[in-house]
Each structure stands twice: as C-alpha cells, then as structure tokens.
Amino acid sequence: MIQVGLIGYGYWGPNLARNIHAHEQLNLHTIAEKREDKHDQIRLLYPNVTLVQDAYALLSDDSIDVVMIATSVHQHLTFARKALENNKHVLIEKPAGTSFDELKELEILAHQKKKVLMVDYTFLYNGAVRKLKELIQVDTFGKLNYIDGMRINLGIFQSDVNVLWDLASHDIAIVNYLVGKTPISVKANGVSHTSNGIENIAYLLLTYEDEELIVHLNCSWSSPVKIRKMLCGGDKQMIIYDDVEPTDKIKVYECNLSHFIHREEVLIDYRTGDISIPKFNTKEALSILMNDLFLAISTDKVPEASIQVALNVTKVLAAAQYSIKNGGMEVKISK
User: Fold this and answer.
1) Is the full-model pTM beyond 0.85?
2) pLDDT per residue as tens digits for the range 59-76
3) Cα–Cα distance between 255 and 235 in angstroms, integer?
4) Which of 88, 100, 281, 297 would suit a FRET pair with 117, their CA atoms being 20 to 30 Å apart?
5) Any bridge partners for residue 120, and if so which?
C-alpha cells in the first residue's frame, strides 16, 4: 500500500480524501488540517487516519510516500518543495502556483529526486472531455475553427489569486488537451469589483499558429447562475459540452456552412441536420486521476496531469495577467 498524507481539508480536500480512501492501492495515512472545526468531521469519516494540525509534521513523517496539497495557492510551492526534499511524491491542487520559474524549479527537483510531481487538473480525466477530444479528431467533425468556453458562477472570491488562476486554469488545460498544442499569444481583459483589486471577471482570447483557430474564454465569480460550457465549432459539425448537464453533457450538431461569392457579396449557405448525444465513460474523474498517480509511482508511467501540463497553463495565465494589467495588450507566449 502507498501511504498518502493530505494537507488541507477545506473545499477540495474532502474530495481528495474520499478518492484516496476508495482506492485499493492507496492508504489515507494522515490528514493535516489546522482548523479545529473540521476535526470532528474528519474523525467521523476516517477514524483510523492520523489527524494533525501542523503540516510540517506530516511532511517530515518518513512513513508517508505521497503528499497531496489542497491549501491556499500561496502555500502550494512551499509545501511541495519540502515534500520533494523529504523524498515524497507530490500531487498539488490546481493552480500549482503563480510563478513559472518556481514551478520549473520544482520540476527539476522532482527529476533529481526521481519522484512523481502532478497537478490536479481533474478535467483531463473527465469522460466527457475525453470523448470531446475523440470527436473533434475524426474526419466527420472537420477542421476545428473555434472554441468558446464559459465558466461562471456566483463563486468563492479568492484572496490570493484572481478568477483567471481559479477558473480559467481548468479551461486552458482542457483546450491545450483538445488542440494538442499551446497558444502563441493571449489577450485578456478583467475587472475587480472589490477593494482588493483582484479580478473577479475576465475574458481571454488565445491565438495559435493556425491563424484560423480562435479560442475565447469567459470566467467569472459574479454570475447569478452556474455555467460550465464549451462550444467547439468544426467545418462539418459543431459540439456543445455542458458539464452542468446531469446526463447529456455532449451534443453533436450535424451542421456546417459553406460560402460562395456572388458579385461583391459573400453568401452563406447554412446546412443543419440531426443532433446526436454520444455515450462516454461516467466514472468519477478524480478516481481515474488517483489511479494514474498510482501507475506513475509504481510503473514510471508519465501521468496525464504531469507537471508539464501545469507549466504550460502557468505560462498562459502569467501572460494573461500581464495583458490585463497593460490594457488588454497582446502578449506573446514563449515556447
């Protein structure tokens, strides 16, 4: 059994704990949670798990093989570095941090220590997202022309990162996964409606080497409704992925358009057809992630949510943040 220590039992920690506990090869050994009001709940659900308040007590425990970090973003890199220095594998809740250089240093340290370093981009293990990638790669979909994503809700206003780092990080990871490449530039606009200056609404426009592909992302903590939707438009089909939809999360529209020039006018011929709802694997994404972590540790498999995924997302987010602070200017993203 691989012994797991979990730091943080706040918003995401309970989901991690539940999936660790359910995995046959992982054992939830210790939970570090400084807030005493969470302790009764932890003891009720996991009576055999060691409970501590001090995260460093967990990090220094030689019986723990893996450390999972689900704390405030500003603590992620510090805890991850300490865990790697103590020869432990690491899984960090997204975003791993806001510094590309420090994240790169972690990657180097993990390589030196021969330890697995993952970031919890859960949607890369989502059955609907995987089916979406499969659908846009076949000839019946045609050439991918655009992706339009919306991730909005009346959410928790974070105190250490803006809405980009909190919500857009998911969609950037998904888009990179779907497209199979990273953007070359980004434009971003955002606004803060609070006194701390942290943007709660933001819009991103990503461009790629393929100039005909356009990606637009909208994220907000200030919406009265929760929307988790992505539209992928091809020249033969269009697909809507709606994560909030309880069952029919993916709908494929048999529609396309062709155009022809008549004198000085461009005439568009719209073609519409059937709507289909494909099946996909409905197993919980986080349980698949846990198994990927286990395989990465036990067989040296490169995990889907590798540190390289986090580095690519962090590059985009850092460039988007710079764009916001400079009036929405286009910012090139280094390779």
Assistant:
1) yes
2) 999 999 999 999 999 999
3) 8
4) 281
5) 93
